[in-house]
Every structure is written in structure tokens, then in C-alpha cells.
TrEMBL record:
Catalytic activity: uroporphyrinogen III + 4 H(+) = coproporphyrinogen III + 4 CO2
Protein name: Uroporphyrinogen decarboxylase
Species of the source: Hymenobacter busanensis
CDD domains for this protein: URO-D
Functional pathway: Porphyrin-containing compound metabolism; protoporphyrin-IX biosynthesis; coproporphyrinogen-III from 5-aminolevulinate: step 4/4
NCBIfam families documented for this protein: hemE
Length: 348
């Protein structure tokens, strides 16, 4: 039994006494206690692959920030690794795949991973975290959207344009679909296993949605996300966060998911008209947290008013930036709690 189930109720579209709040990328990065633990280890992967440590880092923001959800400490790139493509996390630079996917032979070599065999460390981390949380807040599981995973597997590292990955969509769409098929099958099994291990809600991150043209987004991304959503157990809410996909609201309106994540470029009042009765998540500009406490408070209040009191999960419009002052994050969280309560009292 959960002591605080605001997130799940908001995701299901039920009335809540206040708006739940958490932050994308809340685990790690901004917390001194994360940096202290991280400094003692060989690197990011040791943290991700050691369930007790991953659980500890997952719970740090619950203690430090008093958010309404935990998100399992892991990375979207564990999926390509489970399929046979190892990644490295290069200090201060980001992910790197020494081998990339270019040819039909490369796709054939990849396996559809069995999550119990190849991603057992994540499932163990979820189990340890659940036990340690003792029902304080729900635990969010996650995976990358197939398109975003393909982008890293083909490109080999982060990029502003991902032009190698997008080139494949133009030059060899069939090959892209074969790769997306394997990623999607792996992701469905992986997210289902996360839910069995204890994840209460799962989020699909399509971080590179915004660089596709609308036709390609429909053909190479949305249909696979749709399939993933449809394959989840009916009682587990799914959130789809497709950064920059303002052109794809029609796709999202039909998506069998409960919640749509919005980046900070979007106006929730406009999106509400387009996607029907879904819950919306977001969408404060992460840079708003560089302001003074008064400015953070004002920006947060304005955001809450745009979403309205119900069917909203407060968050940033993307992950929190590493150099953000945790005290400003606290102002954001406290303002959501106080002001969303007040919005309901004003109504009642
Ligand atoms: C694109 C993407 C990645 N990873 C992820 C995405 C999708 C979300 C998004 O768009 O931001 C998802 C992710 N990565 C991480 C989480 C942990 C849970 C959370 O707190 O949200 C989550 C949900 C830990 C992480 N993943 C990474 C770190 C930093 C590693 C470190 O400790 O040095 C953390 C805490 C590394 C990572 N991982 C990735 C990149 C590009 C980088 C390097 C730059 C960066 O720091 O974001 C790939």
C-alpha cells in the first residue's frame, strides 16, 4: 500500500487534493550526496549496475526534496547494451558507443533481449528500492522510445542533428524498421518486467522526437510507442514524453497512454484542447530555476495556473540541469504544493 499515491491518481485522471510533483533527472546530478557517492566509484555504470547503490541514489531526492515520486536510477542506454551494443559513459561528455549499427548484418547481430537475463540488475534495483521506500511514494520505471534508442545506436553518441540516424530513415527505411522492431520487442518485455518487479508507473522518453519531420515521426516513432503503450498491463499508467513533438498531438490523442509530458515550449491550454481527457505532465523551463527564489515562485505559479488544478503532474519541461541550485528546486516543489492546494480552495 502506498502512503502517497497522488501521482498515480493524477495519472489516472482522478481528483487529487493537490498537484503531485517530481523532476525528470532528479536522481543524481544536482545533489551533493549523489556526487559524494559517485566520486567513490569507478564510474556511472558501476552505480547503475549495483542494485543497492542504484536504490540509494533513487531514494536521495525523496529525502532531500520531498518529491511525490521516485524514478529508478538507470539510463535509457541499458537497452542497446542488453541487445548487444555496449555503451561507455565518458566523463563530462556523455554516452559513447564504440560500435554502431550501420548495416543489415549489424541489425542481425543484435538480440531481442530477455530482461531477466540481460537487465536483471535494473529489476533487482527496483525490488531493493521498493523495499527501502516502504510505500512512501510510487516508483517510476522508464525506457527510451525506440526512435531515440535507434538514434544513439546508429549515431554512436549525442548529436545536435542525429543526421546519420535520420539518413537511415531516408536511405534504408526497411532496415530502420527492422531495428525498431527489435528495440520495441525488447522494450515491451523490459517495461513489463519493471512493472512486475514493482514499478507503479512507466515513462517512455522520446528525447529526440523533435528532430523528425511529422511524417517520419508518425512512421518511425509514434507507431512503436503506441505498440508499447498497448502492451502494458491496463492498471499501470504510462506517460509518454516526446520532447519537441508539438506537431504530433494527433498521434498522442490516440495513444493508449494516460499522461502526456510537455516540454516548456508548449502551452498546456492549447494541448488540452487537442489531446482530450489525458493528464498532462510538465513543463517549467529548467532555466527558470536559475532565477531568484521570488522568480522561481512566480514562474511556478504561472505554470500551475496554465495547467489548472486537476489532471496535472507538475515537473520541468526536460531534465533538471546539473548546475541547478537544489534550494531553487525546493522552492519549485514547495510552490507547487502550496499553490495547487490554494487553487482548489479558491474553487471550492
Ligand atoms: C537521452 C537520455 C539519456 N538518459 C536518459 C535520457 C532521456 C531523458 C532526457 O532526454 O534527458 C534518461 C535518464 N538518465 C538518467 C536517469 C535517472 C533517473 C532520473 O533521475 O530521472 C534517466 C531517466 C541518469 C543519468 N544519465 C546520465 C547521468 C550523468 C552521469 C554522471 O553521473 O556523470 C545521469 C545521472 C548520463 C547520460 N545519459 C544520457 C545522456 C545524453 C547522458 C550524458 C549527459 C547527462 O548527464 O544527461 C542518455
Amino acid at each position: 500500500m502506498l502512503k502517497n499515491d497522488l501521482l498515480l491518481r493524477a495519472a489516472r485522471g482522478e481528483q487529487t487534493e493537490r498537484t503531485p510533483v517530481w523532476l525528470m533527472r532528479q536522481a543524481g546530478r544536482i545533489l551533493p550526496e549523489y556526487r559524494a557517492l559517485r566520486a567513490k566509484l569507478s564510474g556511472f555504470k558501476e552505480l547503475v549496475e549495483t542494485p543497492d547503490l542504484a536504490a540509494e541514489v533513487t531514494i536521495q531526492p525523496i529525502d532531500a526534496l520531498d518529491v511525490d515520486a521516485a524514478i529508478i536510477f538507470s539510463d535509457i542506454l541499458v537497452v542497446p547494451e542488453a541487445m548487444g551494443l555496449t555503451y561507455e559513459m565518458v566523463e563530462a561528455r556523455g554516452p559513447l558507443f564504440p560500435q554502431t549499427v550501420q548495416s543489415a548484418a549489424d541489425v542481425d547481430r543484435l538480440r531481442v533481449a530477455d530482461p531477466h537475463e540481460h537487465l536483471g540488475y535494473v529489476l533487482d534495483a527496483i525490488r531493493v528500492t521498493k523495499r527501502a521506500l516502504g510505500g512512501r511514494v510510487p516508483l517510476i520505471g522508464f525506457a527510451g522510445a525506440p526512435w531515440t534508442i535507434l538514434a544513439y545506436m546508429v549515431e554512436g553518441h549525442g548529436s545536435k542533428t542525429f543526421s546519420k540516424a535520420r539518413r537511415m530513415l531516408f536511405q534504408d527505411p526497411e532496415l530502420a524498421h527492422r531495428l525498431l522492431r527489435k528495440i520495441t520487442d525488447t522494450t515491451i518485455a523490459y517495461l513489463r518486467a519493471q512493472i512486475e518487479a514493482g514499478a507503479n508507473l512507466v515513462q517512455v522518453f522520446d528525447s529526440w522526437a523533435g528532430i523528425l519531420n511529422p511524417e517520419h515521426y508518425h512512421e518511425f516513432s509514434a507507431r512503436y510507442i503506441q505498440e508499447i503503450c498497448a502492451a502494458m498491463p491496463a492498471d499501470t499508467p504510462v506517460t509518454v514524453f516526446a520532447k519537441g513533438a508539438f506537431f504530433a498531438h494527433q498521434d498522442f490523442a490516440q495513444m493508449p497512454c494516460r499522461t502526456i509530458g510537455l516540454d516548456w515550449n508548449e502551452d498546456p491550454r492549447h494541448v488540452r484542447q487537442l489531446v482530450g481527457d489525458k493528464t498532462l505532465q510538465g513543463n517549467l523551463d529548467p532555466c527558470a530555476l536559475y532565477g531568484s527564489p521570488e522568480q522561481v515562485r512566480a514562474a511556478t505559479v504561472a505554470m500551475l495556473e496554465r495547467f489548472g488544478p486537476q489532471r496535472h503532474i507538475a515537473n520541468l519541461g526536460h531534465g533538471v540541469y546539473p548546475d541547478t541550485n537544489p534550494d531553487r528546486v525546493k522552492v519549485f516543489i514547495e510552490t507547487v504544493k502550496e499553490h495547487s492546494l490554494r487553487m482548489r480552495q479558491d474553487l471550492g
